[in-house]
Amino acid sequence: MKGKATKLHTESPLPKEALKIGGYRGPNSNILQTLLIPVLAVITSLIIGAIVVVISNKAAIESYQNFFHAPGAAIIATWDAIATAYGALFYGSFGNIKELIEGIKAYYAAGDTKPILLAIYPFTESLATVTPYILAGLAVAVGFKCGLFNIGAEGQFGIGALCSAFVGYSIKGLPLYVHLPLALLAGAAGGAIWGAIPGYLKGLTGAHEVVNTIMMNYISFRLSDWLLKGPMKATGYRPVTPVIENSAMLPRFFPDPLRFNWGFFLALAVTVFVYWFLFKTTIGFEIRTVGANPAGARYAGMSIVRNFVIAMTLSGALAGLAGATQVLGIDHWVGQGFSAGYGFDSIAIALLGQSHPVGVVLAALLWGTLRSGATRMQSLAGVPIEIISIIQGLVIVFVAAPAVIRWIYRIRAIRAEQIILTRGWGG
Amino acid sequence: MPPVLELRGIIKAFPGVLANDRIDLTLEKGEIHALLGENGAGKTTLMNILYGLYKPDMGQIFINGEEVVIHSPSDAIARGIGMVHQHFMLIPVMTSTENVMLGVEPVQNGIFLDKTKVAKRIREISKQYNLEVDPDAYIGELPVGAQQRVEIIKVLYRQAEILILDEPTAVLTPQEVEGFFKVLRFLVADGKSIIFITHKLKEVLAVADRITVLRGGQVVGTVAAKEASQEKLASMMVGREVNLVVKKKPATPKGVVLNVKDLYVRDERQNLTVNGASFDVRAGEILGIAGVQGNGQTELVYALTGLCPIISGEISIMDKPVYHSSPRNILERGVAHIPEDRQRHGLILPSPVHDNLVLCTYYQRPFAKGVALQQKTIVETSTKLVDQFDVRTPNVFVPVSTLSGGNQQKVIVAREFSRPIKLLIASQPTRGLDVGSIEYIHSRIIEKRDEGTAVLLVSPELDEIIALSDRIAVMYKGQIVEILPAARINKAYLGLLMAGVKPAEALQSVPATIQEIEVERVF
Amino acid sequence: MEIMENKTALNSRKAPNMRSRLTSGIVLIAIGLLIVLLFGLSLQAGMKSTFGLTPLDDKYVIPLPALVLPVQPAIYILALVSVFAGAWQLAHGTRSSTALVGVVAFCFISSFLIWATKGKSMDLVGTMNTSLVRATPIALAALCGVISERAAVVNIAIEGIMLVSAMTSVITATVAHNLYIGLLAGILTGMIIAALHAILVIQFRVDQIISGVAINIIGTGISSFISKRFMQANIDQLNNSGILPNIPIPFVVKIPVLGPVLFENNLIVYIMLILVAIIYVLLFNTPWGLRTRAVGEHPKAADTLGINVYLTRYVNVILGGLIAGIGGAYFTIGSVGRFEKLMTAGKGFIGLAAMIFGNWNPIGALGSSLIFGFADSLQVKMQILETPIPSEFLQMAPYIVTIIVLAGVVGRVHMPAADGTPYEKQ
Fold first, then answer.
1. Each residue of A180-199: pLDDT tens digit?
2. Contact present, A74 and A361 (Cβ < 8 Å)
């Protein structure tokens, strides 16, 4: 309210104390804060994760029992535990500079590619892991943009994987440029249907998508259980699908065991599409408007049901596509528990990325590398992989409650922030 | 004898605005003291401080000469201060008894609520002050006037000696207002002291003993009602000579644009809110729908704009029926809608100004080619509109939430007026706005009417209706009771119709000569 | 004006009463025909279904002979009742269409049971008891939800709370060799985690669903982490608590049918039933209940009357956590005596659905939990009876029921008006 602000400074000669209250803060701190908060959130979560590592490390705990006699030993043991764990994490995510240098030397010396490949293996693995996270993160982000909380990404992922695997192994004799897109589309379609159902229910009846998508998740788990034990089972005892045809596989860049494939660039291309869709099209405009203010959107003539369904369908399609890239690019078959973890991970990624396509890619990069490295952390340092869940949960909390980060690090607020997604159960 | 209440040097600031600037106010025992000012002057803030909802940044409060600090509403209640808010603080799914006893529940056997005791006391208070209330009725089912009575009883139940009433007559017909004033006189006769917040000049002169005028957070002056006049108060409120008459040419209406016949509409609780309404609006005229809020006007507008289903009846725009049309369909037919609740329904607050300006047209050329938005065109057009409609904003990219109420309304007006429209439906278009914005909006509406647009104006402010309309329709309990040309307006007559009196009867109670009445500036 | 925000009116053009009566009437008749189609045809005449009314190894109850039904006639009769109900709805309409729906649902389920049991026998009373037992954690989750949401705080974290409480109660019970201390540990855990949710949501104004999801993730992570890292290797020291015994209540346990179902259960089941009654009474007849509901419907109004909105919400959320803690403890010390990763399997979320279906009312929540518990116990029975439906589809049943129920019910229940929105003073 410009008029009133002028009054504050010129018309009333007030005591200084009164002028301190309220007031206007600088304009540029906003961008800084949008970046700063997520970064600090991740750092803080990693610190807490480090504490958990120490607590669960036998050697460290034992050294603390002798703390007063040998404090130095305790500190060394603590540092040791953290360094080993996070060191393994880093190694698992990125690899080792030394190994890379050795590999390059070996290549120039003897034309041997194996050492280089082994050296870049962790990094390429990370990128391969990132691919489905980008797509799944986009899925949840699109939902958020429309004010919908898609917790069903995991179920949509799984259904998408099964659909693409089915097209992948059951159709034979097609060339790559037909079979692969077909399989990818099948995955997206499967996920789209799985997402459309709760979207439609929400639009028509107002039934909250949180509970419905969670229910759809459980239904998809049971469905895939049945499919993997029955109609889609490969010959043999294990509940897995047959391996897909070569013509359905996403081409890889390097020989085995490196699994980095076209999927990564497909994910980036899809990101560009989602960006264009959300910000440059009329449909995207409607979706964002419905997300910002459904009542106002309705007054402006937009159809709430239509937009809910479109958003959830697109969201489901993206998650299904994520599952498809995982099958067609990495595993080449589907087994039980295929989609485990992707659901909550994608929520964290979308939140961390502030539901913006670029943010999602950055957050997915972080998450993928963390996850990829965590398997190493489990095997090398004996830290159960579940610690990643704990770190993730903490990141979500910190990103969703910037006030906590601000309180810890004593950062001043710009204005009251609120990320409200809930409007209760009836919509 | 010290005054029963004294506020000294109250200062309250919010980010970017000084709501209360060194305010002094005294209230004598047994007095009805009106706090007058236009929207945004700081009246409600001041009373919220008194009631313990806000803490003053500086200043003192004295009750019966003793300085007190009021930390919270419980504090205020304990000190005998009671407040009836403009938007009722009642819980629709609970009964009157439950609402009254909330927070001070008497218990029997240690833990169970004693509702009979409270109901009994409610009946006692009811009788004493002439406030008829059914203790067992659910608030959601009570008419607004009854709800207000429950609010007052709530305050009296807690033995308030100082009563603060915030815009109490907003929801009453002129006749109900008389009855309400009677209740006030009962209360002060009993020794209570009343502060009465309002922006209505006539009422203030009718019932108050003293009047304090606020403007821009400061006290402009305190006058005794006997020595005040409408003109004097109006200029104190606004700070300049106020022209109390709306200038407009006589209307030259052409063909019928909107025709409504026997319309029936239900609300979500299956109540029949529009109960057989019929009227028409012609091009180049303003039809004002007068009536106390809650008589079906809101649902009528929803039905006309496609936001709510019609049970039966006909609506036709330009002779083409509107039946099960979607809101978009209706908008495309050349209907513009300024909604009642500008922030919830008229705008997308977090979105930039330019997005809000194309909210109804973004999918059409030139703002979109197919599905692709033409961002450049949108921004260019928005910049022009902002200029044309005098919207005070640094640029078109800021979120529309950063604009003041008046400028937000201008954005809505700019949006609606920037496309070809045949019918304008304006619902409470100047609610909560400052005088400058009100003048602006009124002049743009009249301009549209002169261009040949049909205008349907819905407002609970009778003075606004009288000032702008060419014909006035009175709506009561979902029906259009009568439609009168502007020249034959008698406010008392209108008031009777708004209260449900049949036209024939009303004519008898009103003076035979129907005079031109003073058309009054709306605040 | 909230009219247009009611999603049932949102974009649908339903004319009330006439059209919905038509639809529901036709649906009910269709169900009747479905009964005949699915269960009535392809039956050999003379088959009988036996429903045991006395659990086989029950020591207390007065025995009742089994209920033997001729399959074909029974199914056709039930189908007829459905069709009749549908016709009644079409022609007449009743004020209580829910009752009619209930009757038809009963017919459908009974026909299904009769069909599945044809030629064999099923322990009906045992199934009813299992339903109650399976419903217990769901009901406790639903009660937690009721208390919390009546004060307008959405608590999706119930699943995570129950999971962590399950873990702490079994560990404590094993270490202390005392189940009741384990129960206490579960309760305490529930309260602490709920307090965390409350602080995030009330103090820091975090979106309530985000906070709930985050707590679920952290809870899942912590419980799986500890299970993997510490419990799998040390089963006897940390993960072997024993199970709460069934406590038969003298006299009433002898009543046929009711006895074995209600009065021969473990402590947690009894606690659940008592809680339902207590919370119902407290919610509608005490100042605490009145203030809670006020805070949930119109916090500003409550605030202006001097009620501390924040405190009320804290108290309610933590009390809810207490109840969820009991629910979590049920999974371990009340059921299998050890903790497994992710053992709550979505019961926390189903509890929320039960709460919505029960209209945020403790007794309604119990009713809907029983329905879910019944669906749950049924799928086990169906596997035993070797019904030709794959077990995975039966396992899907509770979740599908939840979706259907939510879809049908959302417009007709009243959610506390301020549910989900944080309260801001000033």
1. 999 999 999 999 999 999 99
2. no
